Amino acid sequence: MAPHAQHNAHHFATSSEHPADYSKPHTDTAHEPLRVHVERVVRQYFALLGDEVPTDLYELILRQVEEPLLSVVLEQTRGNQTKCAQILGLNRGTLRKKLKTYDLM
Length: 105
Fold this sequence. Notes:
By secondary structure, the protein is mainly α. The protein has helices at residues 3-14, 34-49, 57-76, 81-88, 92-101. Helix 3 crosses helix 4 and helix 4 (81-88) crosses helix 5.
């Protein structure tokens, strides 16, 4: 990855500057499908990059979505991994592996 693209990827992965603050409902975006939010953020990411070409974007996006998904579902199930795995449609062993990856257990 080019140095500029790498910096922007780090910014994308760690920035608190999100297009929507999901802790508060916004009337203009609250009912939009998740794909609309993802598209908006990916477009913003490319705008930040300018002419730089990113690499490993798929992995970057998956990690950015997967960790909070696991965290929230685990929180909603009060730490019950069996229920969490059922909700996510994952094998419990797969869930545990992912939880370890993100240091969530």
